[in-house]
Specification:
- The protein is an alpha+beta fold and 217 residues long.
- The chain folds into 2 domains: 1-10 and 20-59 and 83-107, no CATH class; 139-217, no CATH class.
- It has helices spanning 2-6, 21-35, 39-48, 89-96, 108-120, 132-138, 201-214, and strands spanning 57-58, 104-105, 152-154, 159-161, 168-174, 179-185, 190-196.
- A 5-stranded antiparallel β-sheet has the order 3-4-5-6-7, sandwiched between helices.
- The longest helix has 15 residues, at 21-35.
- It is globular, with a radius of gyration of 18 Å.
C-alpha cells in the first residue's frame, strides 16, 4: 500500500493541511524499519506498558460468544448490530491502518491514562514519560490552518482551537463502526472522553449536542 501511495503525484503544496491516514501509516512503516520491530510491539513496549494500560488490545472490543452481553457489539450506520467477525473483509484493512488508529481498543480508564500522559508527560508511576519539549511539540499547530476563520490548527493528531480561552484540543476517530471523541482543556484540567459503538451522521450530531451542552468555547 505504501509503495502505491508514495508513487502518487502530490495534490497539495508541502505544509498545507490535508488529513490523510497514509501519513501515519508511513510513520509506522518507518518505525518498523528503523527499530526492527513490528508496530504493535513498539506500541506495547513504549505506550501500553509504561502507562499501565492493561485493558488495551489489538482489534475491536468484541467477543465471538453471542451470549456474552458484557461486551458491546458494533453497529452499522443504520443501527443494526453485527457479530464480532463481521464483516470479514475489513479485518485486514483495519490492521494495515493500525498506525492511524482504529485497531486498538481499551476501557475508558486506560484511554484517560493515555490522554493525561499526552498532556502532562508522566507515566503510570508519575515519572517523566515525555519531555516538556515533546509535550509542547505535540500540542503545537503545524502547517496551514484547518480553519482560519475560527483560528483552528492541526497538531500531531490534535485539532487545536486557539481562539477558545482556555485553548481547546480535540480529536475524533472512527473505523466506520465505533466512534470515540476526546475534547481537552488541559489548562482548566477539563477532559471529556466519549465512546460509542456506532458511526453515523446521527452519532456526529449527538456528539456535537453533548459538546455544546457541556462545554463553552
Amino acid at each position: 500500500m505504501l509503495q502505491l501511495a508514495l508513487k502518487q503525484i502530490e495534490v497539495l503544496p508541502r505544509g498545507d493541511f490535508n488529513y490523510s491516514n497514509i501519513g501515519y501509516m508511513i510513520v509506522g512503516a518507518m518505525l518498523e524499519k528503523l527499530l526492527e520491530k513490528d508496530f504493535e510491539t513498539l506500541v506495547q513496549e513504549n505506550i501500553f506498558t509504561p502507562l499501565a494500560m492493561d485493558s488495551a488490545i489489538w482489534g475491536a472490543p468484541e467477543s465471538a460468544d453471542p451470549n456474552l452481553i458484557s461486551v458491546p457489539k458494533k453497529h452499522t450506520s443504520k443501527g443494526k448490530p453485527l457479530d464480532a467477525d463481521k464483516p470479514l473483509k475489513l479485518n485486514l484493512l483495519f490492521k494495515i491502518l493500525s498506525p492511524a488508529g482504529g485497531y486498538t481498543s481499551m476501557n475508558v480508564s486506560d484511554w484517560n491514562k493515555f490522554i493525561q500522559a499526552n498532556f502532562n508527560g508522566l507515566n503510570a508511576e508519575g515519572e517523566r514519560f515525555l519531555s516538556e519539549e515533546t509535550v509542547n511539540k505535540l500540542h503545537s499547530s503545524v502547517g496551514s490552518a484547518v480553519n482560519s476563520l475560527i483560528d483552528t490548527g492541526y497538531g500531531y493528531g490534535w485539532l487545536i482551537a486557539t481562539r477558545a480561552k482556555p485553548e481547546v484540543f480535540a480529536h475524533t476517530g472512527s473505523d466506520g463502526y465505533w466512534t470515540s471523541q476526546v475534547i481537552a482543556k488541559p489548562s482548566a484540567n477539563h477532559y471529556l472522553l466519549i465512546m460509542t459503538n456506532q458511526a453515523s451522521k446521527s452519532v456526529d450530531k449527538a456528539l456535537g449536542f453533548i459538546v455544546k451542552k457541556l462545554w463553552t468555547y
